[in-house]
Structures are given as C-alpha cells and as structure tokens.
Design brief:
Blueprint (H helix, E strand, L loop, with lengths): L1 E3 L1 E3 L2 E3 L6 E5 L6 E6 L3 H20 L2 H17 L1 H12 L3 H21 L7 E2 L6 E9 L2 E5 L7 H12 L3 E5 L5 H13 L7 E3 L4 H10 L5 E5 L2 H13 L3 E5 L4 E5 L5 H13 L9 E7 L3 H13 L19 H17 L2 E4 L16 E4 L6 H4 L6 E7 L2 H9 L8 E3 L3 H10 L6 E2 L34 E9 L11
The chain binds 2-aminohexanedioic acid (UN1).
C-alpha cells in the first residue's frame, strides 16, 4: 500500500510530523493508501513554494497557462475510466456517477482553459477629455483551497483550474476521506507541464491543517466547500484579517411537486435527487413539497421506486445506491432518522443502517412523510439518503415552504403550468432553480452557488469561475499632459 508524503514544489517530501492516516474504501473497508499529516512548518514550506512561484506563473501569459490545462484535459479524458474506478473505490458513489465526477472535472478544465483567451476587462469613456478608462483582471496570489469528499475530483477542479488560468498559485488540502483523486489530478497537471510550486498539496485534518491554511498570513484568499459550521468559522477568521474568502456550504434543497405535474417524471427527479450519490450532494433534494391533491398518488409511486433501489458496491453495474462516506456520517444519518421519528414524522421506508453483505457504511434510502416545516429533519442538512415530504395546498404556500430554510442552493419545481414555473423562478430564494428536472446536475458553464446560509455571495464555475480568483483593477490613462480633476473640472 502506497504511503503519500506531501507535494511541495513539484516533489514528494516527508512531513515533519510522524502522523499518518488511512484512506479506505467505504463499501469494503479495503485500505487504499496512507497519507502523511502536515505540520504548521510543512504548510509554511508549501506557502513559500507557492509564493516564490507566483511571480513567474502570474507573468506567464494566460493563453500559455491555458495550454497546460488543455493538455491536462486530454490526459484526464484518456484516463477517465481508470480514474472513475478509483473514485468509486475511494468515495463510494456508483461507477456511472464516478464517471460523471471525472467528466465534470474535464469540463471545467476545458472551460477554464478557454478563459485563457477571454480574460476580458472593460473599456469605457472618461468624464474628462484625453483620458481613457479600462479594467483589468489581476490574480490574487497564493490561494488556500479546502475541498470536500463528495466530489473528489470535480470540486477540486472547479477551484484549481480557474485559479490557475487566472495566474494564482495554490496550497491545497483535499478531504482526508478522498485525497487520491486530487493527487491524481495534480499529477496530470504536472505531466501536462505545470511548473513546480504552482500547486502544492498538504494532508491532514481540518482542525489542524485546515486551520493553519486559513490562518497563514502568506495565503491571500481561501476557497472552501464544506459544512455551514466550518464555513462560518472560516468566514469569521478571514474577516478578522480581511482575507478574501469564498465558501460553498450546505443546502436543504426542495423539489416542489404541483398538482398538474407529470408524476412519473417527478418521482424520477426525487429518486435521482434524493438518493443519487447516496444523498451526499450539497444539491441533494432533501425536501419534497408536494401538493395535497397528488400527495397519495405521488407517495405511492415514490415508495415503490425507493424500495426497489439496490444498495451495494458502486463498482457493480446493478448497484443503484452506494455507501455513505464513513462511520461518523453513518452515525449522523442514523441519529437524524431517530430524531425524525421522535419529532412525530411518519417513517414510510428505510430509517436503518443497511447490510448488503459488505463491511462498509450503508444506510437504507429513507422517506419521512407528514413532516412539518419546523422539524429538524426539514431544516438541517443530513447529507445522506433521507428525504422529507411536506404537504401544501398551492403554489404560494409551496414557495413559502421552499424558502423556509436557512439555506438557498438548489431548488426544483415539477409543473406543466408556465405561470407557476415562472413564479418559482422569480420567488424561490436559491442560486439554482430547475423546471421539471431534479435539484442536482449543474453544468460547468453556469454559475454555481447559493444564497443565505449556502454561501457568501460568490459563485463558482461559469462566467464567475475566474472572478472568484481575480481582483479587478480600474485603470485611468490620462494623456492630456495636464492635471485634470474628476468631479471638479
Ligand atoms: C456539490 O454537491 O457540492 O449540481 C456539488 C450537482 C453537481 C455538483 C454538486 N454538478 O449536483
């Protein structure tokens, strides 16, 4: 079994701690790798490497930086199947979704590479004669990135690729449950010609390594995807020293099923949104807000489909739902299943740890009905295969229920009525609204992110991808040869 050191300045170097941790397959508990834990000094070494490399990398023309990304995308494409299989073994999601995770990484790599020739600013006129005004985009410097385990390659790629094309250098801590796919991605970037020091990898727990990245004075910005609780802490720590920070946090994403909906389509959407990736997406559909007139018909169909789902090892083609990531997530989900029952919600199916004949962490796809909006299972992000059905009697009540949450990432409505669809588009407080499709499956050329507890106003990917990792400079070019005073002359 391979032991990974830290990746600093293009080389694998031993950590200065004696601590290690194991990376295991959540379905089989097979050990995949051991990783060394970084110390504060190791992080400083990584930051220094990124700082030293910043000048040359930021001075490399963006189309040249992009060229490396185009190459990396080609290599990722060639290795897609092998990487997807490793991703399933490391994270547990079913193989078709693992391929999707790699594909999303390829997509953002190509998209970001395209941005190399689109680093547009604006030009405009001046209020004074013989003066020209424009904006340019500048890289920020060393970016600290802390990424989650649920999209082991796609989310690191969403952050890394735009940051690189914009000319930043990086110190990155991948999730301890899934470091291998980030390592593979960085190896591919190096193979494609990324200079040493542009990206550095450190490993270890958020409580020490993540914390040291957040606090390191040489790191100019933090990009984090993870829990609301950690996100709040990071934002407040960065606020104290005015460090730029972008966070993508949780969701309690609703699917609205109206009385005119195509119910089979809505059931497809709920199965995919609630139980795809075993419910472990920020965008997962965890609330279904269903019109009272169709509640019974919808629930019956949903129940039949949910009971037919096949739990198991994600590498097997017959598996619909893989494991959850680790024991503590399994405990958390089980705890919420108990909370739901104690709160008085009706458990329709699931609710227990499952045993598909493997030693890993499996939980039954779970549906609660008669959930009221103030229950914890309707308010808190569970991040597992658990969905809460809430009944309403019209579009306005449905939208009110959708907005009755601390989060605001994704949302969806199933209806054939255009007026209702547009009402949802205008009134749901979320960063994403789908019409007649599920809450998951955002595409990389659109901005991704949310409102309220989901984030702090940034969007990732799409036209905002480069914005997250650049600063705008306004430039005033006065060629009048005399002192001209704006607002006064
Ligand atoms: C996440 O769960 O944090 O829209 C990201 C989706 C995926 C990305 C999810 N493209 O579901």
């Amino acid at each position: 079994m391979q032991e990974y050191q830290l990746f600093i300045h293009g080389e694998w170097v031993g950590s200065s701690t004696n601590d290690t941790f194991d990376d295991t397959n959540p379905a089989t508990l097979e050990k995949l790798a051991t990783l060394q834990v970084a110390s504060g000094d190791d992080i400083t070494r990584a930051v220094r490497s990124a700082q030293e490399t910043f000048t040359s990398w930021s001075e490399t023309p963006p189309p040249k930086r992009a060229h490396i990304l185009f190459k990396a995308a080609r290599i990722l494409e060639e290795r897609k199947e092998e990487l997807a299989r490793l991703l399933t073994r490391e994270m547990g999601k079913v193989i078709s979704e693992a391929r999707g995770d790699i594909q999303e990484a390829i997509d953002i790599t190509l998209y970001a590479a395209g941005e190399g020739r689109r680093m547009f600013g604006e030009t405009t006129t001046s209020e004074l004669k013989n003066k020209f005004c424009m904006t340019i985009l500048r890289p920020i410097g060393v970016i600290g990135m802390i990424t989650p385990w649920n999209f082991p390659m796609a989310i690191p790629a969403w952050k890394v690729m735009p940051a690189l094309v914009a000319g930043n250098t990086i110190v990155m801590k991948p999730a301890s449950d899934t470091p291998l796919l980030t390592i593979r991605m960085v190896e591919v970037l190096m193979e494609a010609g990324l200079p040493p020091g542009v990206i550095n990898l450190v490993f270890g727990p958020g409580s020490t390594v993540g914390r040291a990245i957040v606090h390191h004075p040489g790191i100019r910005a933090i990009s984090f995807t993870g829990s609301l609780e950690t996100g709040k802490w990071i934002v407040s720590e960065c606020g104290k020293v005015m460090k730029r920070v972008s966070v993508e946090l949780g969701g309690k994403n609703p699917i609205l099923v109206m009385d005119d909906a195509d119910l089979d389509l809505a059931v497809d959407g709920v199965i995919w949104g609630a139980f795809g990736t075993t419910g472990q997406r920020c965008t997962a559909a965890s609330r279904v807000i269903v019109h009272t007139k169709v509640k019974d018909a919808f629930t019956d169909r949903l129940l039949v489909r949910t009971r037919a789902l096949n739990l198991g090892d994600g590498l097997l083609p017959e598996t619909d739902v893989g494991p959850v990531i680790n024991q503590s997530q399994l405990d958390k989900i089980e705890h919420y299943a108990r909370i739901g029952q104690d709160e008085g919600a009706v458990l329709l199916t699931g609710g227990h740890v499952a045993d598909p004949g493997l030693p890993g962490y499996f939980f039954e796809p779970t549906i609660f009905t008669d959930v009221s909006q103030d229950m914890r299972i309707a308010r808190e992000e569970i991040f597992g295969p658990v969905v809460a059905l809430i009944t309403v009697s019209g579009i306005d009540e449905a939208i009110e229920a959708a907005n009755n949450t601390d989060y605001g990432l994704s949302s969806s409505i199933y209806t054939r009525d255009m007026t209702r669809a547009f009402r949802a588009i205008e009134k749901i407080d979320a960063g994403i609204t789908y019409i007649n499709s599920s809450t998951i499956g955002a595409e990389v050329h659109l901005p991704f992110g949310g409102v309220k507890g989901t984030g702090n106003g940034f969007r990732e990917a799409g036209t905002d991808a480069v914005k997250e990792f650049t600063e705008v400079k306004a430039v005033y070019f006065d060629y009048s040869g005399k002192l001209q005073k704006a607002q006064i002359d």
